[in-house]
């Protein structure tokens, strides 16, 4: 299971880097190239959304079937282990939501850039007439 979370962590890091690069101010030619390259990668990268949803379902199922550690029957080490698993689950939920949110942000930035380009082309045609 740790491999899945490591993969998701790397995906979130890559998405954050791409979102940061796309939102930096840059010359129009470079921005257009970056957006077109990112747009080509967006459709195959869509797998991150169902993957994150599956991981969220896994977290939910484990939370429902986790042994509760409350009262005097738990030792200190059992309580620590329980709290550690809860913290990991919370971290993983944040990781799943951030993967989906960053994918959506990258998608919207690319879409807005393409809309701006099409509007600029329309404006250029009107000016030529």
From TrEMBL:
The chain crosses the membrane at residues 6-25, 37-57, 92-110. It holds the Pfam family Bap31. It is a multi-pass membrane protein. One of its GO terms (cellular component) is endoplasmic reticulum membrane. InterPro entries: BAP29/BAP31, BAP29/BAP31_N. It is found in: Endoplasmic reticulum membrane; Membrane. Keywords: Endoplasmic reticulum, ER-Golgi transport, Membrane, Protein transport, Transmembrane, Transmembrane helix, Transport. GO terms for biological process: endoplasmic reticulum to Golgi vesicle-mediated transport; intracellular protein transport; protein localization to endoplasmic reticulum exit site. Residues 1-121 form the BAP29/BAP31 transmembrane domain. May play a role in anterograde transport of membrane proteins from the endoplasmic reticulum to the Golgi. Belongs to the BCAP29/BCAP31 family. This is Endoplasmic reticulum transmembrane protein.
């Amino acid at each position: 299971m740790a491999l899945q979370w490591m993969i998701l962590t790397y995906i979130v890091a890559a998405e954050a880097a791409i979102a940061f690069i796309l939102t930096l101010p840059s010359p129009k030619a470079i921005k257009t190239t970056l957006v077109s390259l990112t747009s080509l990668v967006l459709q195959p990268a869509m797998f991150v959304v169902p993957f994150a949803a599956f991981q969220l379902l896994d977290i939910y199922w484990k939370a429902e079937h986790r042994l509760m550690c409350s009262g005097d029957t738990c030792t200190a080490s059992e309580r620590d282990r329980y709290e550690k698993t809860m913290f990991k689950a919370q971290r993983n939920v944040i990781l799943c939501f951030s993967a989906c949110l960053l994918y959506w942000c990258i998608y919207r930035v690319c879409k807005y850039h393409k809309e701006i380009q099409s509007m600029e082309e329309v404006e250029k045609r009107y000016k030529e007439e």
